[in-house]
Amino acid sequence: MNKAPQDVATDPRIEPPHAGDPAPDARAMWRFAIPSLVGVLTFLTPIKVAGNWTIVMGFLSDWTTAAMGGAMVFVVLGLLWISALGSALVRMIRPGWADPGTLGARLFMVSTLWLVLRGAGAIMGTMTVLRVGPEVFWHASTGATVMNDLAVKLLPLFLFAGFLMPFLTDYGLMEFCGTVLKRVFRFLFGLPGRSAVDVLASWLASAPVGVLVTIQQYTSGYYTKREAAVIATNFSIVSVPFAFIVANTVGLGHRFLAFYAAVVVTGLTVAIIMPRIPPLSRITDEHRDGVVPRLDAEPTGSLFVQAVTLAARRAVRAPSLGTQVRIGIGYILDIWIGLVPAVIVVGGLGLMLAEFTPVLGWLTAPLVPVLELLGMAEATTAAPALIAGFLDMFLPALLVANVDAEPTRYAIGVVSVTQLIYMSEVGILLLRCEIPLKFHHLIAVFLLRTAISLPLVLLFARLVL
Fold it and tell me: Does the residue 349 lie in any domain?
């Protein structure tokens, strides 16, 4: 993003609590309890709707998408053209509404690369909606998939996340979880305990929501550069409902418990290893430039008492509802205007590459004998699927859906969920945010996660299938 959605100009200074602060009163306790409960119920509580498990925010997002129907794709197309034309206008004439420090500048003052990307997104979106130009751009498995299955779901997801996320992050829940889990997370992952909320937000909501929580905490001064990079690249897993969709796609919905058990164990194992090796271990352990570090105080008493005390103190210092709404609007517009065009371009081109060219087969040819050595059947089909996950998380499942060997489908499905770095959504979001992760970092993390995950998952396949 060009600036943090919650930057110095819009974020009121909230000083960290001190050990000498008075004990929180009943009002402070309620100010912590009620909004945090809303956050838990919205993001972290599974509910069953029409026989399927989801969460409240997921239900709201799906309901909005269904209510809008076919009109939603035209909303996406409109945003693509607003993004492209607004950026071009700012580049050419610099209108007053885009002066430095304004919302207009944050949304539309972009580099030449991003200007081209936004223009390409508008053109590709138009070709898909109108079904004009070469079919490869608007085919059901390329442009239509990105526009109709991905982009239309991202808009309401980020709309509700932008307004509801403060209940999860700004009223003490992070402090409560961080205190209770700080020893476990620090020992296993070298991370502050508050990152547990980022993890839960990803696993029960969605990977982009988890990344947004991490970005918000980093730009607010709670995470160092290394901590934010580790959290974003190790815990931004797709939600449980989406993992179930992947399992169904590879024909293993009936074995979902065994499927998801491998996801959890493999994901945690990789998360223990990755922070301790390059490139993540080489990222500096310092806070973002210009941000005052916010360190939680250490009140006395049991761990639970400490957690409640710190949470209540944080709730008292939370911004007003009006400020929260204003910050939320900044988040939403930043994602809609900046992220969606990149999703269209990167996701669409990635699907074209996988579906209509032999490039992935050429790149992964050296992997085939390695997979055969590990005992994976139909390795020629499985090898491209392993790499395709870097382009889009759903691609590997699609590529092996017709493979006869169940262990191969199981392994590719689980690995695709644990790879985490896919450019059509999470990757673009990470490149556009303030966390110091470059493209080569994402490639390295993706390859390392794949190399570590695959043997573990193949072992699981032999044990459970």
Answer: no
State the total domains in the chain.
1
Residue 65: name the closest of 158, 163, 164 by CA. Answer: 158
> What letter would DSSP give residue 235?
S
Q: How many CB atoms lie within 10 A of CB 242?
A: 17
> Do residues 283 and 229 touch, judged by C-beta distance below 8 A?
yes
**Contact between residue 81 and residue 129 where contact means Cβ atoms under 8 Å apart:** no
Rounded to two decimals, the pTM is 0.72
Gap between the Cα atoms of 418 and 39, Å rounded: 26
Residue 257: inside a domain = yes
Q: What whole-number distance in Å separates Cα of residue 233 and Cα of residue 245? A: 22
Highest mean pLDDT among 213-222, 230-239, 263-272: 263-272
Classify residue 48 by its DSSP letter: E
In-domain check, residue 303: no
Is 197 contained in some domain? no
For residue 218, give every residue at least 6 positions away whose Cβ sits within 8 Å of its Cβ, in sequence order, or none: 225, 227, 228, 288, 434, 435
Distance of CA 356 to the CA centre of its chain: 28
- Hey, which residues does 53 pair with through a beta bridge? 48
End-to-end CA separation in angstroms for the chain: 44
Determine the Cα–Cα distance for residues 140 and 151; give it in Å rounded to an integer: 14
Joined together, the tokens standing for residue 234 give: 């190790």
| CA–CA dist 88, 98 (Å, integer) | 12
Coil/strand/helix, residue 396? helix
The mean of the pLDDT values for the chain is: 85
Q: Which domain holds residue 256?
A: 249-295+358-465
State the Cα–Cα distance between residues 237 and 206, nearest whole angstrom. Answer: 7
Going by pLDDT thresholds of 50, 70 and 90, the confidence category of residue 391 is confident
DSSP H helices, 40-111, are: 56-68, 71-93, 103-108
